[in-house]
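Figure S7 source data.
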Amino acid sequence: MGTPIVTISRHIIDMERQFPEATGAFSAILQDIAFAAKLIAREVNMAGLVDILGGTDERNIHGEEVQKLDAWAHDVIFKALDHCGHLACMASEESEEFLPIPDKFRAGKYVLLYDPLDGSSNIEANISIGTIFSIHRKITEGERGTEQDCIQPGRDQVAAGYVVYGSSTMLVYTTGHGVHGFTLDPSIGEFLLSHPDMKIPKPGQRIYSVNEGYYSKWTSGQRAFVDHLKNADGSNPKPFSLRYTGSLVADFHRTLLYGGLFMYPGDSKHAEGKLRLLYEAAPLAFMAEQAGGRASTGEVDIRDVMPVSLHQRIPLYIGSKDCVDLAEEYLKQDVLIEAK
Ligand code: AHG
Ligand code: MN
Ligand code: MN
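Tokens for the predicted manganese (II) ion complex:
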């Protein structure tokens, strides 16, 4: 038998032993997230059977229709962690305001930010969807957390991860000591270590991932870059293949395993793109860097961006380092044009 049978609980405890800064609090938070992931996985896998699909006819703060599963997953994660005693507060894509810990529960020294369900538009098509989370330390003095504790640069994350609900359910996380992937064995309800110390392959597969439907709204640099990748301009004897699912977690998971580049650029209608910095781009950037890759806004590292608001959007280029570097080269021409 190859890899020893390691549950996520055992793995987190072993990590805690090796790295004193990962205190028991840390392990408890990660284990509670794994528990919430099991509940969401069960619901996602039943979604076709249980009438929890279809819009809630509510709209979230971004004006997007909230699928029942989004709102439900938001609640599951909050209720699985609000009483753990290790969080000072939380923030979620599905809540305009940050989420204080109810007074009846003890507060702790960490902050959890999360996208409870990523790829919502794919729920009814049975295409993989996911959950993304980011963990910071509380930085304000008070006992209970504030919104300020949620608005921290990606460089200061202490942990990040995602769950992908696909042909199997996987939980992938980093605490700054490598990226580790666990696959849920539903027959025993355990996440088992299946992908220890994940690294983006070098060289990566020649795959680019972007919604080409927005080509007409891209900058000239973005267009030139994609034209190069697919040899539309005759500059690339080994053109890339396009893969795009519309679920960030699924596209990132493939990029982590195969290499290549995922992009969600800004455009003439949305200069900052669509994806959120704090609970989509920053956690995935932490993992990409830990796996030997990179994540950029197209100009600077995602993890160096100083956030100003909870739900701010950011352009995202993430995956194999050489691909992200090349994207930045092409996008420099936009900066030059703007400067004129
Ligand atoms: P969410 O469901 O959390 O709002 O995220 C959806 C995001 C992301 O998962 C995906 O990469 C992107 O939306 C797809 O956007 P387009 O449909 O504009 O390509
Ligand atoms: Mn999302
Ligand atoms: Mn979401």
